[in-house]
Design goal:
alpha+beta; four-stranded antiparallel β-sheet; single chain; 10 helices; disordered N terminus; six-stranded mixed β-sheet; 416 residues
Length: 416
């Protein structure tokens, strides 16, 4: 009887392994197909941008055909990116011995389940080598997300600071690159002097200012020390990586995309390149509407608004004469929308400032390297002090194609 059971278990294990190999092969093929589709989409965007610049150079306004095509490419790109993330998560997922479908792993779980980490635990030293980790899009207590890895640790002395929702990246068109720099053409200004002209009379001259730009891929990274005893405490290590290193990268990325000054190793963010608001409104809500108009008159359509949380709170607290709220409903969750556009509230925006933009057409992120974690005891005097060094880094570039697709300003009323 035992022999029969063992044979059945062996057969089930073999079938499970064959199925895993087949599924992985299918996912790799899908991944390759999606990467090619994203690359083709990026080429189409470049071609459409070139066509738009050509039309502007001929004294024409950008045709509706080109605008619609760019908007469609942006929308298609988001769908491709979502499919790519889904495939990446499937490739990163593990399958249980019983053959049940694997769940997405958090950063910490991916590290402690890697072969390099297991070798490090067994050897009590050495290096894991580089471990590519796929981002978990939503952290929650759902088993399909980070699961138990993100549950609060009941260990005295360990505190977890509040964490903001990072959404600037969500506004910007996604992209990928295998290079260390992105070369593109940026439109600085366009003076349209086209006018009716009598026969035989000189034609007016229009001017366009173009500039070749290079968006260098920059590295965002940091590291931390932990005691070697953490090797035997996987949940604690998982929490360290997820709650500190991963969040730290996302937080600095948020600030760089918005405020980077382009000096040294900084990205050149959107705020330093945006146009200054020219409106004369005397209320925050009207100021933002005038900024949207300024973008529309530049032949773009705004797709998002960025505010400091305190300034968004001030807008939500606006009331009518009967003391009812103008925008919010205290008894339910109100969507963060103003003038039909999504509002991103982030502390990366200075209080009192605002940014309105056509983000998906005017800018694009190019990811060169997904967040990567490396663990080692061979650093400084780690071996003597029973410490391990854990490092996280990512590489990306930001291209701002049209500065006049963005308008920044200072609110007339700051905070609630």
């Amino acid at each position: 009887m035992h022999a029969i059971i063992e044979r059945e278990l062996s057969r089930a294990d073999r079938d499970r392994r064959i199925k895993e190999v087949q599924e992985r092969g299918e996912n790799v093929a899908k991944f390759t197909e999606l990467m090619e589709a994203i690359k083709a989409r990026d080429e189409e965007i470049k071609a459409m941008c070139a066509k738009a610049l050509e039309e502007i150079g001929q004294g024409k306004t950008v045709s509706e055909e080109v605008k619609l095509k760019l908007e469609q490419l942006s929308s298609d790109g988001l769908k491709l990116q979502a499919r790519l993330i889904e495939v990446e998560q499937k490739l990163a997922a593990r399958t249980s011995y019983a053959g049940a479908a694997g769940q997405r792993k958090s950063w910490g779980e991916q590290v402690i389940e890697s072969d390099g980490w297991k070798r490090l635990v067994e050897a009590k030293g050495g290096r894991t080598g580089k471990i590519e980790l796929k981002a978990v899009t939503t952290i929650s207590s759902d088993p399909a997300s980070a699961g138990a890895a993100i549950e609060p640790m009941r260990v005295p002395g360990i505190q977890y600071p509040p964490q903001q929702q990072l959404t600037i990246r969500d506004l910007i068109a996604p992209g990928r690159t295998t290079s260390n720099a992105i070369d593109y053409v940026q439109e600085l200004a366009f003076q349209n002097m086209a006018a009716p002209v009598a026969e035989g009379q000189p034609k007016p001259q229009s001017d366009i200012s173009l500039q070749e730009k290079t968006a260098n891929v920059r590295t965002l990274a940091h590291w931390m020390l932990a005691t070697v005893q953490v090797l035997d405490d996987a949940p604690q290590l998982s929490s360290y990586i997820d709650a500190r290193l991963r969040y730290g990268l996302a937080l600095v990325e948020e600030d760089q995309l918005l405020n980077g000054d382009g000096l040294g190793q900084n990205l050149l963010g959107i705020m330093p390149q945006a146009q200054v608001a020219t409106g004369t409104a005397t209320s925050n809500v009207d100021q933002i509407r005038e900024a949207m108009l300024q973008i529309r008159l530049a032949n773009y359509r705004a797709t998002g608004i960025v505010l400091h949380p305190a300034d968004w709170c001030a807008i939500e607290l606006l009331k009518l004469t009967d003391n009812s709220y103008l925008f919010a409903n205290p008894q339910s969750l109100s969507p963060q929308i103003l003038w039909g556009l999504p509002v991103v509230d982030t502390v990366s925006m200075d209080q009192g400032g605002f940014l309105v933009g056509a983000f998906r057409i005017g800018s694009q992120i190019f990811d060169r390297q997904a967040p990567t974690v490396e663990v080692s005891t061979e650093d400084s005097d780690n071996f003597r002090k029973n410490l391990v060094t854990i490092r996280a880094e990512e590489r990306l570039a930001l291209a701002v194609y049209a500065p006049n697709a963005f308008v920044k300003g200072t609110l007339v009323v700051v905070g609630p």
